[in-house]
Amino acid sequence: MESPAVEILDLVKRYGAATALDGLALRAERGAVTAVLGPNGAGKTTTVEICEGFRTADAGTVRVLGLAPEHPELRARVGVMLQSGGVPPAVRCGEWLRLVARFHARPLDPGALLTRLGLAGHARTPFRRMSGGQQQRLSLAAAVIGRPELVFLDEPTAGLDPQARHACWELVGELRSAGVSVVLTTHHMDEAERLADHVVIIDQGRVVAEGTPASLTGAERQLRFRARPGLTLEELLNALPAGSAAKESPAGHYIIEGQVGPELLATVTAWCAAEGVTADDLRIERRTLEDVFLELTGRELR
């Protein structure tokens, strides 16, 4: 039976008195896109860097394509995109990608990959003179040029404009279609919903939820509208069908959860009329991954 692309059990990592990973367990299947989400400081980058062999764990077990992360065989089988660094400042964009290609037996064509990611016109530009978004795209190109079996993407679209983000999304989709396993960290919930087969949410060094985007968000729909802040919801809750919930989050934004149908819609609009308010931007939608993320990790800044 083929091992997972990544398997982590009881992973612990400490930095002095601070515990970055506290018994974390994670599994990424082969040929799938696994998104790792979490607030800043939750342990996402530390987890990925241990899998890449750049950091060592204090306890626990990590297997990448069935091997220990430091195994030399993985260098040809795994692609790595770092958040920053790793490219000499003076090297030209095209030269760097051609150099990386030489380390692989069957690399993708560097010129075609530069064109694909909108970098063909910057092939002779030194890395230090490229914009942050261009540097990010070059790092992505270097991670995938060797046709890896598994690729780690740490915040792959951070700082990119919408066109560049969509180009990266298309490339990730093609990697999955080709059977490549992808593990990505991201702060963009829409990115995780769009790309991921499996989502893992971690907080304070532990997994707090995981599943497909659909299973995490659920089939339940919500009614949302805007009105003046501070409306008293007790009377509305008494009038709603059993099992319904109502909350104001953030101020002036109201969310009604439950069996959203004609009866509930009529009850809410009648209540708004009785309160003398207009329900602006009233819409029916399902819970988003961002809703789930905030419910699990909290809304306060850290």
Q: Which CATH architecture of the largest domain would you pick?
A: 3-Layer(aba) Sandwich
Overall, the morphology is elongated
Query: Whole-number average pLDDT?
Result: 91
How much beta, percentage-wise?
25-35%
Strand tally: 13
User: SSE order, as H and E?
Assistant: EEEHEEHHHEHEHEEHEHEEHEH
Largest sheet, strands/sense/barrel: 6 strands, mixed
What is the CATH top level name of the largest domain? Alpha Beta
Pfam family, one: ABC_tran
Domain ABC transporter: 6-229
Membrane topology: Peripheral membrane protein
GO molecular function: ATP binding; hydrolase activity
Describe this structure in words.
This is Daunorubicin/doxorubicin resistance ATP-binding protein DrrA. Residues 6-229 form the ABC transporter domain. The protein has helices spanning 44-51, 93-101, 110-116, 132-144, 162-177, 189-195, 213-217, 234-239, 262-275, 289-297, and strands spanning 6-15, 18-28, 33-37, 59-64, 78-81, 150-154, 181-185, 198-203, 206-211, 221-226, 245-248, 253-258, 280-286. The protein is an alpha/beta fold and 302 residues long. It folds into 2 domains: 6-216, P-loop containing nucleotide triphosphate hydrolases (Rossmann fold), CATH 3.40.50; 219-286, Alpha-Beta Plaits (2-Layer Sandwich), CATH 3.30.70.
